[in-house]
Each structure stands twice: as C-alpha cells, then as structure tokens.
Amino acid sequence: MSSVPPGYRFYPTEEELIGFYLQNKLENRREDMEQVIPVADIYCFDPWQLPPMSGEPCRRDGEQWFFFCPRQEREARGGRPTRTTPSGYWKATGSPSLVYSSTNRVMGVKRTMVFHQGRAPVGTKTQWKMNEYRAVEEGASSIIPSLAPQPRSEYSLCRMYTKSGCLRSFDRRPSSSSSAAAAATNTDARRTPEVLPSGCVPASANRPSSYGDSSRHSVGQRGEDDLWLITDDECYSLQDWF
Q1: Is residue 39 a contact partner of residue 70, using CB atoms and an 8 Å limit?
Q2: What is the C-alpha to C-alpha distance for residues 72 and 82, in angstroms, rounded to an integer?
Q3: Torsions phi, psi of 110, nearest 5?
Q4: What residues have CB less than 8 Å from 240, skipping those under 6 apart?
Q5: Which candidate, 27, 64, 101, 140, has a CA 20 to 30 Å from the CA of 167?
C-alpha cells in the first residue's frame, strides 16, 4: 500500500477487527497485515506518541489508531499484564465483554481502558481511551456461559482514540443491524404513515447506533463511552486474563 487516496477512511467493525485482522495476525496468514495495523508494545510509549507509529490508513487520521500488541513476557509466564507507561498507566473500566459475530458466534473479548497521567492510584484521568480486543479460538462456542472460551494472548488488537464532546466519524457509522432496521422502518412507513400528536417523535428516532455494536446486553447508549456487560459466570471464567 504505497499511498492512501483522498477520502479513504479505515473504519473497520469489531467483527472485521477480530475475524479478519487479528485472526490473520495470530495465524500468520498474511505478510502485508502490518502495513495496515503495525505491531507495537504500546505500554512502552505514552498514548500521544503512538499516532505517528500507526499504519498508513490511520497515520493521517485524527480520530483513531490501531496496533497489534504482543504478549508481555510476564504474561507468558502466567502473570498479569503490566499497563504502565513512561508517564502514566492504563486503567480498565467496566467489565470485559464478549464480542459476537453477525451469526451470533463468540469471536473475542473486549476491554475498555482510560489513560491516567501520573502514578497509580493518584493519576489524573486524561481524554485518551483504548479498546483492547483478544480473539478466541476459531470455531469456539459459548452456548454454556460457564464454559466461555478462553481468549488467545499471543497478540491483542488495540484501538486507541481520544474522548471528545461530539460524535466522530466512527461513532456515526451505523451497524449492519441498524441499517437493516432502518430499511424495514422506512418500508413500513411507506405502507402505513405514522400519525403522531404535535411535538412527539417516533421512538425509533431516538435510537442511537454504536460503533461496532456486536455485544448482546448494553447498559446505555453513550457513543464512545458505551459499557457492555456479560454474565457473572462468563466474567469469572475470564478473570485470569485481567
């Protein structure tokens, strides 16, 4: 990939990030993968140092940057990962969530983190955020919550971005399910016009879409600050990862 044409944007869904990019990296199927998403030990750098190190599709993007992060040595020995950087640390928020494919298959696990400047536990919260994705074995299933598949740890895929007070391009991207629902709503509207009292709007008009929405249960729709929950059994089976 020698150059990126004008207007090109790299906005993959969570299903594409895990099912194509991360799985291909884990299986070493494509040699050109790192041109799009490079390998970087993100915990050796502060977040504002990473955008110039991102792949060509994201290098000129002011909204989000992607990296493959290799497994740490202490994690390979069974320890917990270290999330400290030269001037701060990444702190996990909420609970880990399972990521589902469009066919309702468990693809991976997602963790959201916020960067704090300073040393724990008195660091100052910043606008930098990160979604960390780990893939499960291809073909794994999670029909029984207590047998939730364990994530692979050779590499994780990290999506970094900065918190803002407005919707960005990736926040506005509709999911495939939202697009289908919108099309069905428009078809129904043409068949039967909806008549509402003055000042009222249809309930469907207030339904926001979320970037890469592939989790099952949500506790709210807040754009980039969405938190997703999983069952207690699933969280218990994943606790060793965190």
Answers
A1: yes
A2: 8
A3: -120, 135
A4: none
A5: 101
| Residue 22 Ramachandran class (φ > 0 left, ψ -120 to 50 alpha, else beta) | alpha
**CA gap 20, 3 in Å, rounded:** 22
| Helical segments of 100-231, H only | 169-172, 176-191
- Residues 117 and 126: beta-carbon distance below 8 Å: yes
**In the numeric block, which tokens belong to residue 73?**
């040595």
C-alpha dihedral (169, 175, 180, 183), degrees to nearest 10: -20
Polymer length in residues for the chain: 242
Q: CB-based contacts of 217: which residues, under 8 Å, 6+ apart?
A: 228, 229, 230
Q: 0.85 cut: is pTM over it?
A: no
Asked if residues 237 and 124 have their Cβ atoms less than 8 Å apart, the reply is no
Q: Residue 144 corresponds to which tokens in the numbers above?
A: 């029984």
Buried b (16+ CB within 10 A) or exposed e, 147-180: ebbebbbebbbbbbbbeeeeebebbebebeeeee
* Cα separation values, 190 from 146, 174, 183, 186, 194, Å: 46, 22, 11, 6, 9
Give dist(CA 38, CA 76) in Å, integer. 21
H or E segment at 124? strand 124-135
